[in-house]
Design brief:
The longest helix is centred in the C-terminal third of the chain and has 33 residues. This protein is α+β, with helices and mostly antiparallel strands. It is elongated and about 55 Å long. Strand 1 and strand 2 form a beta hairpin. The protein is built from four helices and five strands; from the N terminus they run E-E-H-H-E-H-H-E-E. The protein has one domain: D-amino Acid Aminotransferase, Chain A, domain 1, CATH 3.30.470. The protein is 34% helix and 28% strand.
Length: 155
């Protein structure tokens, strides 16, 4: 199955940098079983893309209607996916994945921190306590077959 994760990060300080990862998020599943791209299936968007805006139009899109439907829903919670990963691969692999995801998030934010710090200081020079701004970011993460996380984009 092909899916991606949408994880939410709250930033409420840029210097010092303060980052909080929301404990849950979303897993968005492709509505067709994934197959390696070929000339025959390359135009099947439901197989190769996990975008909600595309997959909600698929005939086999499954809306989550309650706690028992999450196992088959096209959009599931991040915690549900972590539970499935732990059941299939063990607690250690789950913890390694979570640490890898945290690493991707932190490194991504640290990469832009100097530029954002400059922008904040330019617009709020009197904010010496670093309290006048915050940001909520959505990180889209894809996990490969070896349980390695990769950043798709930040919203």
């Amino acid at each position: 199955m092909k899916y991606d994760l949408r994880l939410y990060v709250f930033i409420n300080g840029i210097n010092p940098l303060r980052i909080y990862l929301y404990k849950d998020g979303l897993a968005r599943f492709a509505t067709c079983k994934y197959q390696k791209p070929s000339e025959r299936n390359l135009d099947n968007l439901y197989m190769h893309l996990t975008n909600y805006a595309i997959n909600k139009e698929a005939d086999n899109y499954v809306e989550a209607s309650g706690p028992t439907s999450e196992a088959v829903a096209s959009k599931r919670s991040y915690q549900h996916v972590l539970k499935l990963i732990e059941e299939k691969h063990g607690l250690e692999k789950r913890q390694q994945l979570e640490a890898g995801i945290a690493d991707v998030l932190i490194k991504s934010i640290c990469m832009v921190q100097p530029h954002v710090h400059h922008l904040v200081r330019s617009s709020q020079p009197d904010d010496l306590e670093n309290q006048l701004c915050f940001q909520i970011l959505g990180f889209d993460i894809m996990i490969d077959h070896n349980l390695r996380p990769f950043l798709i984009e930040i919203n």
